[in-house]
């Protein structure tokens, strides 16, 4: 198994050598989903067990069973198979009453956003409310957008993907203020991730990795997608501090750097 993994990593390095250098990440058995933010890296495995990275190893992160985790300025959050929302507080996961969400993202400048499980509407939790929650009481979310399947926010914009794989972007005012208007960007993507530095990466329906490029004062959402070659289909990705973390369909964790 180790020999096979090493061979795959060599192929990945050759495939992506002109853009990024990829290597096998710290050993993470059967990763399913990852998120990175502000230097922290968290993830869940196929058995819905959450982990965090410290040094060169992943360690158990609390005892909850979660399908999705995220970390950022407002803490570490997650949701379970019943779409209940959790925040990591004092060494364990605390469930929050209120909306049920199928996916959450804490990558913005303070707010937490998520996709409501009952309607696929995007909801936003302000920085003040997110930071203040310590495990007691319910959370009050604010409506952010219409139907999305996946959402991710950065310093100035939020990006989302719909059920029919269309990509939209909006500038967000005043933390959880209303969006300036969701702008259609392209189609063919199934997930998207915005780094805390504003970098945007996306995963196509066929498992190809793309970076949004050519940002300018005239186009705050860029003008094209640039393919990042990989040696095999990718099932999940996340980006932070010049590190692109990718989970392959065969559940091998790679980390790619310039």
Automatic annotation (TrEMBL):
Protein name, UniProt field: Fish-egg lectin-like
Organism: Solea senegalensis (Senegalese sole)
Keywords: Lectin, Signal
Family matches, as Pfam families: Tectonin
Signal peptide start and end residues: 1-19
InterPro entries from the UniProt entry: Beta-propeller_rpt_TECPR, Tectonin_beta-prop
Alphabetical list of PANTHER family matching this protein: DYSFERLIN-RELATED (PTHR23250), FISH-EGG LECTIN-LIKE ISOFORM X1-RELATED (PTHR23250:SF3)
Entry's Gene Ontology molecular function annotations: carbohydrate binding
Family: Belongs to the tectonin family.
